[in-house]
């Protein structure tokens, strides 16, 4: 019975918490960097159909495509510092690790590499959107390590969009890359994430 006494206060707290923006409003003075591998680079389509370019068109912000096809997380970690210093972004969209999974790399090390990337971005007070990659199974959702990292670092995170697109042939140019429609869907989802979390208010 005592629980019911405090229920209104609990509900109010939950509603307030859910209404809090997790991202600061973006400005047009600094770019957004999309960092990752071939899914960021846009393998399967021409340069202007890659998701960072689509996101730039939808949002009106400068979005720099820093995707490198074939890159594993160890290589991404080695590259990240120079990218952040070069562009000085206000926000990074991190989509990396698919090649580690496809090549059966040690996922404990993959998680550690991603952890170091996240910490490096956060240490520079750069905002971050984190996207999960599915396990080596077309029917799976994001690998557990992505959910764990998102929770550990309190990240703005989507663990579903990549697996959802990969499961549908109409969005793909080959077994692991998207076509123009797929990259458009990805860009639209990232835009929704930014909007839902206060970056575009």
Secondary structure layout:
Layout: H1 2-19, E1 32-36, H2 38-41, H3 51-59, E2 63-67, H4 73-87, E3 91-95, H5 98-102, H6 107-123, E4 127-131, H7 144-153, E5 156-158, H8 161-166, H9 180-196
Parallel strand pairs: 1-2, 1-3, 3-4, 4-5
Helix pairs in contact: 3-9, 4-6, 6-7
Your description of this structure?
By secondary structure, the protein is α/β, with parallel strands linked by helices. The chain has a five-stranded parallel sheet, sandwiched between helices. About 50% of the residues lie in helices and about 10% in strands. The protein has helices spanning about 1-20, 40, 50-60, 75-85, 100, 105-125, 145-155, 160-165, 180-195; strands at about 30-35, 65, 90-95, 125-130, 155-160. The model is unreliable at about 1-20 (pLDDT under 50). About 40% of the residues are buried. It has nine helices and five strands; from the N terminus they run αβααβαβααβαβαα. Helix 6 runs parallel beside helix 7 (about 145-155).
List keywords for this structure.
alpha/beta, 5-stranded parallel sheet, 50% helix, disordered N terminus
TL;DR of this structure?
The chain is of the alpha/beta class and 201 residues long.
Could you say which structural class the secondary elements and strand pairing correspond to?
alpha/beta
Number of helices: 9
Number of β-strand runs: 5
**What is the H/E order?**
HEHHEHEHHEHEHH
Poorly predicted regions:
1-18
Spatial arrangement of strands, main beta sheet: 2-1-3-4-5
């Amino acid at each position: 019975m005592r629980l019911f006494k405090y229920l209104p206060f609990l509900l109010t707290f939950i509603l307030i918490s859910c209404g809090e923006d997790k991202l600061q409003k973006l400005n047009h003075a600094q770019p957004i960097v999309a960092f990752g591998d071939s899914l960021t680079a846009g393998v399967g389509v021409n340069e202007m159909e890659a998701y960072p370019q689509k996101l730039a068109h939808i949002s009106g912000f400068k979005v720099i495509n820093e995707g490198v096809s074939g890159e594993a997380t160890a290589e991404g970690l080695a590259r990240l510092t120079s990218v952040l210093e070069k562009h000085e972004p206000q926000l990074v969209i991190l989509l990396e690790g698919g090649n580690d999974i496809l090549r059966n790399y040690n996922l404990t090390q993959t998680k550690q590499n991603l952890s170091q990337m996240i910490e490096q971005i956060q240490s520079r007070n750069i905002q971050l959107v984190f996207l999960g990659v599915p396990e080596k199974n077309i029917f799976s959702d994001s690998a557990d390590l992505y959910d764990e990292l998102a929770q550990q670092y309190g990240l703005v995170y989507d663990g579903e969009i990549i697996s959802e697109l990969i499961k549908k042939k109409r969005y793909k140019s080959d077994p692991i890359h998207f076509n123009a429609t797929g990259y458009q869907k990805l860009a639209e989802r990232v835009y929704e994430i930014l909007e839902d979390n206060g970056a575009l208010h």
